[in-house]
Each structure stands twice: as C-alpha cells, then as structure tokens.
C-alpha cells in the first residue's frame, strides 16, 4: 500500500461523513422550519402547501385564546410544585446514597432511578391508581406527584455528580471545631451544592413543562399547555399551535445560546488547572 | 444507617431518611404495587346474586298472576272458591315474604381476584401488542444506525469549536416539545402535506395516504426519539483515547476493524443506555400515535391502555395492560445489560 492511499481514503470518508452530517441536520431542522413557516400562513388548518398569504393574525388569536393562556398558567403552577417537591427529595436521596455502602446503596439507587427507565404513561397510571385509594382524583396536584416521581431522580443524579467532587475534610474539620450538623449543612454543604441546585431546578422546570405522556393520565379534567396542544391535534387544529411552536423554538435557541456563552465566559474566568 | 446519623446528626439524618422513605414508598413502590393489585381483580356478580336474581323474577311473575286470580275471586260466596281464595292469599303472602328476604340480600358485585385481566387480552389487542413491540425494536435499531456516525463525528472527528456547534444543533431540537416535533411531521405526511406536494410535482398520479398505513407513526417516532440515542453514545465515545484509534490505524486496521474492535466495544455502555431509552420511549409513547394515527391507522398499545382508563373505565384491565408493558421494558433492560455487560450504575447517568 502506498503512503498516500490511506490519507486519500481518509479524506474521502470525511467527505462522505460531512455529507451525512449535513443530511442529518437537514432532517432535524427542516420539519421545524416548515412548522414555524405555517404559523405565518393565514390558511387554517396549518399548511405550507396551501399558501394564502403572509399573516400575523395567529399571534393575536393566540393572545386571546383563554384555554391556552390558562394552560400556560397551569403548566407553570405544576412546574413550580414539581421543583418544590423534587429538589428536596432528590437532595435527600443523594445525601443518603453518598453515605451508604456499595451493597445497600446499589439496591436503593436502582429503586430511585427506576422511574427514569419506566414509560411515562405507567408512572401516570400507577400514581392515578395509588391516590384513588384515598379518593384523590386527577388534577394539577396529582400531576405534580406523578411528574416528580421521575424528575426527582434527575435532580438526585445531578446532586450526586456534584457531591462526588466534594472534599469531605472541610465538613469533618468544621465538626471537629464544634460546629453542629445543622451548621455544617447550612454553611458548607448547601453553598457547595448551590450550582447543582440551580441547574436541577432548571431541568425540573423544563421537564415538567414538556411532559405529556405522564400528565395525560394524571391531569383529570384540568389541562396544561401541552395537554391542550395534544387535544387540539385531534380537534380544532389552527396555526395558533404553530405560533406556540415558534415561541418554543425561540426560547429554546435563546436559552441554549445563553448557556453556551455563559459557560465560555466561566471558562475564560477560571484559570486553567 | 449509622453512617448517615454520624455525618448529618439526628435531626437532618431523620429528615433525609424520611424524605427518601416517602419518595420510595409513596411515589415509586407503593403506586406500582397498587397498580399490580388493581390488575389482579375485577368486580363480578356473585353466583348467589345471579340465582337470587332469577328467583326474584320468577316470584314476581308468579305473584302478579296470583294477585290477578285473587282479584277475580273477590266478593265470591261459593265455599269452594272461598277456600281457593284462602289458599291463594296464603301463597301470595308467602311469596311476598320470600321476595322481601331475597331483595334484602346483598346482590352488589363483589371483588374477585383473578388473572383473567391478563389472559383475556383479545386476539386483536394481542396483535397490536406484538406490533407495538416489534415496531419499537425497529425504531431502536434504526435510531442506532442513524446516530452512531453522528455521535462518532461529533466526539472524535470535529474540531472543538465545530463539535460545540454540532452539540448545540443536537440540543435545540431535543429540547423542543415532543408534541410539536411530531406535529411537524404531521404537516409533512398529511394527505395534503409537503411530502405529497413534492411527490405530485415529480409526477406521481395521486397523493399517498401515509398516515392510514401507520407508516406515519413509525417515521415520526424515529424522528422524535433519535436524539435519545445520540447523547449516550457521544458521551462514551468522547472518553475513548484518540490515540487508540490512531494506533489501530497505524497498525493497518481498516475503518471497519477500527470501529468493530476499538470504538464499538468502548461505546457499549452508551449503546445500551441509548437503546433502553429509545425502546422504552417508543413502546410507551402516547403522543406520537395520538397525533399520527388520527383515528384512521391501527392504534398503538399505549392508546389501548388509555381507552381502557378513559373510554371504557375498565381500570382493572387497563392496569393489567400497563403492567404487561412494564414487564416488556424491564425484560429489555435486563437483555441490554446482559448483551452489553453493563451494570445499573452505568445506565442511569
């Protein structure tokens, strides 16, 4: 084999891979672009093939859509409840696991993360059945319980990742110097966990707002933004849904870009090593 | 346990233990157990209630007949008929007495423990169940084939700035609501959608009904869950020392050999996690079939479960179906852990 052959075959495969990546990203983004575009078409139901002229009317229809607006309020209420429930639960799970030996720790760990690997509809169904025993029916409160089942596990994993990097000698020193356990927790452990707490709250909020498969079983007669979108997929579909899609895309892109920029700035500030 | 109290003190230690106890018992184990319990019984008319009901009907008929006869004998003076009337009146009061005792009996349906909620899955439902599992396996396989090159390129081939851009491009669609992503495909595959417009423009005689065949569900499902395969594989490939790939290449390994002997073995935990997530999401997906079948294509198994709960209000069988689905997912997780030789700690990361 000559010495140039491998490099030319490598560059050829690079071209193939580049083309593949371009196709893959077209596959990811084209549908989203089409969806957003249909939001500006005055034709309803949403379409890009039957173009009836550029229009902003669906924005104003969205602003007047009481069910959607109520859905947004309900979604935020549920997400807030999920944060308030999942963060303490996830934190206690992480703190407990960090002190257990490998054997009993593994079993508990398996139980606590199992909801992440369970289909969402089953979490919704089992929560619905469980709370019916005490006559609690579907609604916003039940949705908080159902969603927290797996979102608390996400929070726990984030706390565990942070706790692994903790230097426990600091806590031990404080205890030796006469600090109470409460003082150690409030002055050392909690401040150390603050960044993880912030990102866990953000993740919990996003996961809760997004959730459909669990919520659809636990929401009862109430609705969130996403279950309202879900029921409109069958009845009364108008480009208002596309405008919501546009808003989702905009917020997501803004948050993602802001996150990347923030991390770059943080990296620039902290000296290497 | 002692270690917990030693590190956190009595108050905090108790709060932590209590929190974990509530989470495990009231949110994870308890609900699952109650779901299983619900799937193992049904309300049935007791046998005694069935026979009692038949007897009540019989008595009612006989009673109205006797009362009619009694009315006909009213005011008679014939001694024969008087005796007959006496006899009839006695039997009427006897029947009335029996009727009141029978009606007083509890005929309400009783809870009967049975496995028939599982065994009674009809042929049609069983067919949908098998199709759902088969389609979910296909989605998982396709997602792996599509994602592996992307994950490898992002982790090993791209320069750091470009890799960051690729990741951003992956995160954005991943973060957009699942329902909206699927809705985008509804607009493409609809009868009057984009795909049909393009096909007609290329000279196809008439539009294709993509949604009726269930192909729409499949296509949108691959799209919705493909990214759950990318990130786990990317994460594991990224930890592979690039020198190993270069060493293999210098030693004359072909691209195929490099991947089958160096990269793929290293990526095993990531492939296992990605497959588990993709399969679980597909098999349990409610959103994708809800949007893409539009009531015309065959339903997904999750839709059967939903209608057991909210259309026919037959929770017992709904719970049995749900538990069956859960068992399949658990079996798939165990299979993946065995095939890829990974532990539970590697999975949930």
Automatic annotation (TrEMBL), chain A:
UniProt entry tagged with the keyword Protein biosynthesis: no
Coiled coil location: none
Record-level GO cellular component terms: plasma membrane
Keywords: Cell membrane, Membrane, Transmembrane, Transmembrane helix, Transport
Record-level GO BP terms: transmembrane transport
Residues annotated as transmembrane: 12-40, 72-97, 109-131, 137-159, 192-209, 240-262
Bilayer topology: Multi-pass membrane protein
Record-linked Pfam families: BPD_transp_1
Localization terms from the record: Cell membrane
Domain ABC transmembrane type-1: 72-259
UniProt similarity note: Belongs to the binding-protein-dependent transport system permease family. CysTW subfamily.
Name this polypeptide is given: Spermidine/putrescine transport system permease protein
Organism of origin: Novispirillum itersonii (Aquaspirillum itersonii)
Automatic annotation (TrEMBL), chain B:
Chief location bin: membrane
Keywords: Cell membrane, Membrane, Transmembrane, Transmembrane helix, Transport
Subcellular location(s) per record: Cell membrane
Listed InterPro entries: MetI-like (IPR000515), MetI-like_sf (IPR035906)
One GO process term, biological-process aspect: transmembrane transport
Annotated membrane topology: Multi-pass membrane protein
Transmembrane region(s): 12-34, 128-151, 163-188, 208-234, 271-292, 319-340
Superkingdom of origin organism: Bacteria
Segments forming domain ABC transmembrane type-1: 129-336
Gene Ontology annotations for the cellular component aspect, listed alphabetically: plasma membrane
CDD domains, per the entry: TM_PBP2 (cd06261)
Family: Belongs to the binding-protein-dependent transport system permease family. CysTW subfamily.
Protein name per the record: Spermidine/putrescine transport system permease protein
Species, as recorded: Novispirillum itersonii
